[in-house]
Design brief:
By secondary structure, the protein is of the alpha+beta class. It is built from seven helices and seven strands, in the order E-E-E-E-H-H-E-E-E-H-H-H-H-H. It has helices spanning 60-67, 72-80, 121-127, 134-138, 145-160, 164-178, 183-193, and strands at residues 7-14, 18-23, 36-40, 46-55, 86-97, 100-102, 115-118. It has a six-stranded antiparallel barrel with strand order 1-2-5-4-3-7. The longest helix has 16 residues, at 145-160.
């Protein structure tokens, strides 16, 4: 996990609750399911989101390469110079305005072609100091919400390094409160974040 922000791609389409990024290649750390990303909104705020899906569609050239006996350099070139962008879907979980974290939807979505960046380690720690965003993720219909929340918690624990286990215990307590009447779902989530 990086101490600084890294570019991910650019906005293809967006709404207040989610957006889709287009990128040409997959870097080793980006994107990661449950990873925290950010984008500047038109009002000057930074929108914070979680990566919940990555779709790699084929293109005509890739189809031709499947059956051909080509060298690795051709495959590497195709991966680096894709004609069809890789699409990354992001669930919006909050925003930052004037240095203050808000764990609810922003007033405006990002605009097409805005640059998406990963959140730095410090930004992830700061955003996940509060668990208010849990409800947004748990209620998300478009994402595999339990898997997404568990992955985001593992990323947040990784950002905290030595205190990651304590963070996961606190997160588990909050999940127990939120899902007190859904023991099966709670058990599944707790198993996924077990330190």
């Amino acid at each position: 996990m990086s101490d600084r922000s890294l570019p991910v791609g650019r906005v293809l389409r967006s709404s207040t609750a989610s957006f889709t990024i287009g990128t040409k290649t997959l870097a080793t750390d980006v994107p990661r399911f449950g990873g925290f990303v950010k984008v500047a909104a038109p009002d000057g705020c930074d929108i914070i989101g979680l990566i919940y899906d990555v779709v790699i569609d084929d293109d005509l050239f890739a189809r031709q390469l499947i059956g051909a006996d080509v060298g690795e350099e051709y495959i590497a070139d195709q991966r680096q110079n894709r004609q069809v962008p890789i699409e990354i879907s992001v669930l919006v979980v909050g925003h930052v305005c004037d240095g203050k974290m808000h764990h609810y939807l922003p007033p405006q979505p990002p605009i097409s072609l805005d640059q998406i960046m990963t959140c730095s380690r410090d930004e992830i720690i700061r955003f996940t100091d509060e668990f208010t965003y849990f409800r947004t993720v748990l209620d998300a219909k478009e994402a595999r919400s339990d898997e997404l929340l568990a992955a985001s918690l593992r990323h947040a624990a990784e950002a905290r390094e030595s205190t990651g286990r304590d963070f996961l215990v606190q997160a588990g307590r909050e999940l127990s409160r939120l899902l007190a009447f859904d023991a099966v779902r709670l058990e599944g989530l707790l198993r996924r974040i077990k330190p």
